[in-house]
């Protein structure tokens, strides 16, 4: 019982880390796109 519980906790932790990593990746991607859009908008306004 203890071994299966440990395996479940381990798999849940791995799944959580994967999801967290994906969420972080998406957040970085979105913020980068927003920054690029802001820079382009500023350049457009500058002209």
Describe the structure.
- The protein is mostly helical.
- The chain has one domain (1-47).
- 96% of the residues lie in helices and 0% in strands.
- The termini are far apart.
| Domains (count) | 1
Helix/strand class: mainly alpha
Low-confidence stretches: none
- Per DSSP E runs of 2 or more residues, the count of β-strands stands at 0
Question: What sequence of helices (H) and strands (E) makes up the elements?
Answer: H
Task: Tell me the number of helical segments per DSSP (H or I, 4 or more residues long).
Answer: 1
Transmembrane segments: 14-39
Keywords: Membrane, Transmembrane, Transmembrane helix
Structure described in brief:
It contains 1 helix and no strands. The chain has one helix spanning 2-46.
Which keywords apply here?
47 residues, 1 helix, transmembrane, membrane, transmembrane helix
């Amino acid at each position: 019982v203890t071994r299966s519980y440990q395996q479940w906790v381990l798999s849940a932790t791995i799944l959580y880390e994967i999801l967290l990593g994906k969420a972080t990746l998406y957040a970085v991607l979105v913020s980068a796109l927003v920054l690029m859009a802001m820079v382009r908008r500023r350049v457009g306004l500058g002209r």
